[in-house]
Amino acid sequence: MLAAAAAALRDVSPDLRFGRVVAVRGALIEVEGLVGAAQIGARLRIEGLDAPVEAEVTGLDRGIAQCMPFSDPQGITSGARADLMAGRFALRPCDAWLGRTVDGLGRAVDGKGPLPRGEVPRPIKAAPPPAASRARVGAKIQTGVRALDIFAPLCVGQRLGLFAGSGVGKSVLLSMLARWTECDVAVIGLIGERGREVQEFIEDDLGPEGLARSVVVVATSDEPALMRRQAAWTTLAVAEHFRAQGKRVLCLMDSVTRFAMAQREIGLASGEPPATKGYTPTVFAELPRLLERAGPGRAGEGSITGLFTVLVDGDDHNEPVADAVRGILDGHVVMSRRIADRGRYPAIDVLKSVSRTLPAAHSPEENLLRTEARRALSTYGDMEEMIRLGAYKEGTRAEVDQAIALAPAIETLLKQGKNDRGFAAESFAMLQSILVSDAGQGGDAEGDA
């Protein structure tokens, strides 16, 4: 009888469970007293001297719940009460979020008042749609960036990575894509961004027109690792909300690398062993779970077209995060410091950039033009040092002579200012004019001879 009564009591969920803080080790807070109640991902509200601090359970160790805070843990004392918050945290986005800026927890940070709540809860960390029920990648869309529209086209539901070192124009390219890429809604995640650049991006780069169709999720570099990771999840959760409504969503995230760094901090603080370059195994487990959430939805839903920036460490495009992300996404765009140094922006290296929707994304005529231009740029790149040194003699190889004539004009075509919008049809017409003009000059030269 007593055993049955004890079992029945264990099955009863109490109205409130709380524990006590027993240790604070850097960013890690240890709480005891929540055995059998705390789960990974559960949220706590911990008493502080000035204000309560919200935290999330990131690990469990022999009766101790290991937690990370969403804000500065200053003011937490040993023995402080930690209340277990009921239920799983979920967002409730709605159309009224368009034009607003929120933090990783879905709270307004733009000074425009509280956010309205939608009817349908959206989990922060959701599973991607099942592979067998997902729609296929759709038709090509214009980005307004000539280098992409010609050499690395973007299609509805595709996920493309922008790989770049620091200071080569990655943020400016992202702002061009945010304003010009065809979509119904844009969801922009600024993960680990410099605080001073947030307002510059919203007011100058995005502008009132771009902001009106966008939701911006911000977690600056000074915020705790948990908030930076949460902001990345929130970005995808908001995008999933609009995809479920049948809309074409453009999801921009700057950057996936800072998400990986935040996950590394969380893993190391929880005692996870470091692996490649200090990144923990959960980093490489979380990357596909995050990135696979973008893409086409189920039948009857819309799509999330994803553009994710990757900040390559020391311009090493084979560093662990870049290598892992490149294998997950549907293409990668490489931005080169060498090209930026000679003043051509956006500094996209078209020879190293790949879109896995090619050749189907282009018409046969467009593919022919793209292939000819790419061949000319490749030939010029192979001989560039000899040409600059004057070691190549004109007339030695016909294909090199052709590349010398074509490459400067193609480079000029690919050069754009941040307010110089391109159009795909016009870009291909200009490229065709360059290629045909060179062919005509070659024919005249042979006739004169």
From TrEMBL:
In terms of one coarse class, where is the protein primarily found?
Answer: cytoplasm
- EC category: translocase
Localisation = Cytoplasm
SMART domains tied to this protein: AAA
Q: What is its EC number?
A: 7.1.2.2
Task: Name the chemical reaction catalysed here.
Answer: ATP + H2O + cellular proteinSide 1 = ADP + phosphate + cellular proteinSide 2
Q: Where is the AAA+ ATPase domain?
A: 156-340
Q: Which GO terms describe its biological process?
A: bacterial-type flagellum organization; protein secretion by the type III secretion system
Pfam families given in the database record: ATP-synt_ab, ATP-synt_ab_N, T3SS_ATPase_C
Keyword Heme (UniProt): no
* Protein's UniProt keywords contain rRNA processing: no
Which Gene Ontology terms cover its molecular function? ATP binding; ATP hydrolysis activity; protein-exporting ATPase activity; proton-transporting ATP synthase activity, rotational mechanism
Family annotation (NCBIfam families): FliI_clade3, fliI_yscN
What is the recorded function of this protein according to its Swiss-Prot or TrEMBL entry?
Probable catalytic subunit of a protein translocase for flagellum-specific export, or a proton translocase involved in local circuits at the flagellum.
Protein name as it appears in the record? Flagellum-specific ATP synthase
Native source species: Sphingomonas parva
Tell me the gene name: fliI
